[in-house]
Amino acid sequence: METLKDIKGVIFDYGGTIDTNSRHWAEVLWSKYVEHQVPVDKESFREAYVFGERALAKYPFVQPRHNFHDVLSIKTKLQVEYLAEQRKLPLDEMQLQSYATKVADSCYHYVLDVLKVTRPVVEELAKNYKLVLVSNFYGNIQTILEDFGLLGFFDDIIESSVVGVRKPDPAIYRLGVEAMGFDAKNVLVVGDSFSKDVVPAKAVGCRVAWLKGEGWGGEVIDESLPDVIITDLAQLPALL
């Protein structure tokens, strides 16, 4: 792979990048539904996932104090309640809570395992580069980063719910570049979503390392657009 040159700062995406190392969160959650034998089909789960994400974007269920386990608990509760309302799961409150708790706990421990790989990468790059986080999130990303021992590595954080602009709008990456204080051509963006990270980051003139993995599907992909393609965040330091 081509080694990236003249990079002065790195912008990281968070969800799907640092916390799952290239897996879309829908796929992570679905794998845990299967593991814990929640009796729904994948299409029904996808509907519940979309419902939950829209609800979280619209209503302040997530508060700034909430850590990631809290977020997962809120997400899974919304999902199983939706599935019950759609008659895809039994209307049994105790059983629904059991499903939600098992999936949330399992996902949280999954992230702790992934961070054993991704956190050292962030830590290593922070020694030599200015780091900025650009994320679509719910207003509690600093709490999550602190909980996972990541907060101190970032010089600035651009969070969609705080700045009022969301990916894939290139404006959120423009804010990231401004926070860097470098020319866009000297900034590397690292993200897992082609449409939400690669496309808007290139639109503002950044270099891009696409963390290609298990995506959501349905995206139009042009693999010539990113500067480099990686499949594991641990591959990144060797390219810089």
Folded structure, characterized:
- With 240 residues, the protein is of the alpha/beta class.
- Helices cover 47% and strands 11% of the residues.
- It is built from 8 helices and 6 strands.
- It has a 6-stranded parallel β-sheet.
- Helix 1 (25-35) crosses helix 4 (93-126).
- The longest helix has 34 residues, at 93-126.
- The N and C termini lie close together (11 Å).
- The mean pLDDT is 96.
Q: What string, H for helix and E for strand, traces the elements in order?
A: EHHHHEHEHHEHEE
Profile the largest sheet: 6 strands, parallel
Q: What percent of residues adopt helix (DSSP H or I)?
A: 40-55%
Beta content comes to 5-15%
- Determine the N-to-C terminus distance: 11 Å
The number of strands is 6
**Envelope shape:** elongated
SSE order and pairing:
Layout: E1 9-12, H1 25-35, H2 42-58, H3 68-85, H4 93-126, E2 130-135, H5 141-147, E3 156-159, H6 160-163, H7 170-180, E4 187-191, H8 194-203, E5 207-211, E6 228-230
Parallel strand pairs: 1-2, 1-4, 2-3, 4-5, 5-6
Helix pairs in contact: 1-4, 2-3, 3-4, 7-8
Provide a short characterization of the protein structure.
47% of the residues lie in helices and 11% in strands. With 240 residues, it is of the alpha/beta class.
